[in-house]
Specification:
CATH architecture: 3-Layer(aba) Sandwich
Strand order of the largest sheet: 2-1-3-4-8-7
CATH superfamily: Thiamin diphosphate (ThDP)-binding fold, Pyr/PP domains
CATH topology: Rossmann fold
Radius of gyration: 19 Å
Bound molecules: thiamine diphosphate, magnesium ion
Number of helices: 10
Length: 325
């Protein structure tokens, strides 16, 4: 932590807190039944999106998944447009037609999210190939879960990116579950990061609940990519606090064990980092409280904006979509 500037430490904290408070707002309002989109919440995994995206420039590319909110917010996506999208409103980032799993903000390099598990990984490789061919020095990042490692697209993407030394960082968020199946029921090993070695690229395992560690590992990977030294695979080990989809937890359904969740909640990425910031004198309690109030205001404004925006009209149904004539 000591070699990260105070400004960056505060930036990392704010990114995580923005995600946390945004997701908590969704939990609060979801049962009102006005938000119709399924939501795959990012609570518990905030340090990964924040630690990686804090290394990216506005013009760099991020490709996300069904669990998209954290990546969108950390890359600088407009929070109001995200909330409006979740409410299916015309002012949403996908004009209310995409929902939580299809968010996009090209102005800040959020190139989109897709619900096809593993589907965003080759897209990030394509963007990296374009960047290399056009000599733009832009870096592409794909975030994906441990479940996506079971897909052929993951392996094909690593192979091609390594072969062409493309400027891409593959960020696997290993939260140990794909819907309800544990990693041990799907993979014969527990070392996703080591798969990188078969494609002759660096593979690193990171504590995905420690934002400073994620930041440092991503810094190295992004630097490598930007300077033409090829891709990196990061395995960030973390945990989602809610069920696979929706605002509730899945413990009572028997999907996961309470003790397992408790263990990870103790390692809350936001609270642990807060403690470090206070202990190291980076911020005082009053400053933390002020930051939280500011972010709560932002989230509330986004909520009001989403709620008050109009739905797209029936006449707009076939706009912005491909249709067969
Ligand atoms: C190709 C494909 N297969 C199956 C699904 C159904 N599905 C949606 S999310 C998911 C689990 C994904 O798990 P993981 O990649 O670990 O991400 P996490 O939900 O843990 O963030 C599955 C199997 C899908 N959307 N796409
Ligand atoms: Mg998973």
């Amino acid at each position: 932590m000591t070699d990260i500037s105070r400004k960056t430490l505060i930036h990392l904290y704010k990114l995580m807190l923005r995600i946390r408070r945004f997701e908590e707002k969704i939990v609060d309002v979801y049962c009102d039944q006005d938000m119709k989109t399924p939501v795959h919440l990012y609570l518990g995994q905030e340090a990964v999106a924040a630690g990686v995206c804090a290394n990216l420039r506005r013009e760099d590319y991020v490709f996300s998944t069904h669990r998209s909110h954290g990546h969108y917010i950390a890359k600088g996506g407009d929070m109001k447009a995200l909330m409006a999208e979740l409410y299916g409103r015309r002012t949403g980032c996908s004009r209310g037609k995409g929902g939580s799993m299809h968010v996009v903000d090209p102005e800040v390099g959020v190139c989109g999210s897709t619900a096809i598990v593993g589907g965003n990984i080759p897209l990030s490789v394509g963007a990296a190939l374009a960047s290399a061919m056009q000599k733009k020095r832009r870096v592409a990042v794909s975030f994906f879960g441990d479940g996506a490692v079971d897909e052929g697209a993951f392996h094909e993407s690593l192979n091609f990116a390594a072969l062409k030394k493309l400027p891409v960082v593959f960020v696997c968020e290993n939260n140990f579950y794909a819907t309800h199946s544990h990693q041990s029921k799907r993979q014969p090993h527990d070392h996703i990061y080591k798969l990188a070695k078969y494609y002759l690229m660096p593979g690193v395992r990171v504590n995905g609940n420690d934002v400073a560690k994620v930041f440092k590992a991503a810094q190295e990977a992004v630097k490598k990519a930007r300077t033409g030294r090829g891709p990196t695979l990061m395995e960030c080990r973390t945990f989602r606090w809610k069920g696979h989809v929706g605002p509730d937890c899945d413990i009572k359904l028997g999907c996961r064990k309470q003790e397992e969740l408790n263990k990870w909640v103790k390692k809350c990425p936001v609270r642990c980092f807060e403690r470090e910031l206070l202990k190291g004198g980076t911020l005082k309690k009053a400053q933390l409280d002020r930051i939280t109030r500011g972010i709560d205001g932002e989230v509330h404004d986004a909520y009001l904006f989403g709620k008050k925006s109009p739905h797209p009209g029936v006449n707009e149904l076939l706009e912005d979509v491909w249709k067969l004539d």
